[in-house]
Design goal:
By secondary structure, the protein is of the alpha+beta class. It has two domains: about 210 residues, Zn peptidases (Aminopeptidase, 3-Layer(aba) Sandwich); about 90 residues, Peptidase M42, domain 2 (Elongation Factor Tu (Ef-tu), domain 3, Beta Barrel), CATH 2.40.30.40. The strands form three sheets. Strands 1-2-12-3-13-16-14-15 form an eight-stranded mixed sheet, with helices on both faces. A six-stranded antiparallel sheet has the order 5-4-9-6-7-8. A hairpin with a 5-residue loop joins strand 1 and strand 2. Helix 4 packs across helix 8 and helix 6 packs across helix 8. The two termini are about 30 Å apart.
Amino acid sequence: MNLEDLTKALGVSGFEDDVRRRILEAVGDAEVDDFGNVIVGDKSGVAFVAHMDEVGLLVTSIEDDGRLKFRKVGGVDDKILPGSRVVLYGEGIRLEGVIGVQPPHFQQQQQTSWQDLYIDIGATSRQEAESMGAAPMMPAAFKREYAEMGRFVSATAIDDRAGCWALIEAYKRGVDATFMWTVQEEVGLMGARALASKSNVRSAIIVDTTACCHPNFTGGVKPGNGPIIRIFDNYGAYNNKLARRVLEIAKKRGIPVQIGAGGGGTDAAAFFVSGIPAVSIGILSKYSHSPVEMAHKDDLKYTVELIAALAEELPRTG
């Protein structure tokens, strides 16, 4: 499966069915737990983890004039919402919508709060919106965009379809390890919390994107120079012993990696608090949590190589 196919799947946190279906088609004989996480492998040794979900919106009500009120799901910046195109989805339903904003001719001040905005699906009444299939508690994902620009890929939901893709690539290459694709990372690491609490793996390597780049948060890392070993983020330092071992293996195999930190957090925190040594490998992503995220093709390639190397080396040393 290519990365473009994965990024075009719709998977707002809690509504990851489309992403899960595509992953199951790619990896074959896998287990889906009660929470929607996907697991393949013997569930011991080293596990590689990526999350299926993406930030987005959730319809909360339909107004009399047919416009839809919504809430944010995950960390969405209000500034990117006005003028965005979205896709509402459900069982057998796809509805195009736009988040409109008053034209500058009418504005007294710039409208930026999500609470003042609506999704417009072209309906003129509540009854018409309902007849089109709109309903409260329906997820709305940002409209899919995919383009290759120089050495970069730009797409909606690079976070974390890039990590999902890297795990699939490693699996298809015959890498012997446990692979886990989790749900609801963007709203509190919920899937990983459930998974880690009953997991017997010895260590977890989380493959996620890392927002790029800010000297105070990420250090001097640059796209194209390899994935980063994410030493610290808002959840803490995770497991420095494991991080050092990852760095040693990368150097031994000649795989470019960088040392850095990040804002926010990753599923590594869920494994850490469950007593499982964990570290996060970050694929640098420009414009994170927007519809136009960008990742460098070389970083994607090196990430797959690093997964393969770690799967061979880590079980030997713990």
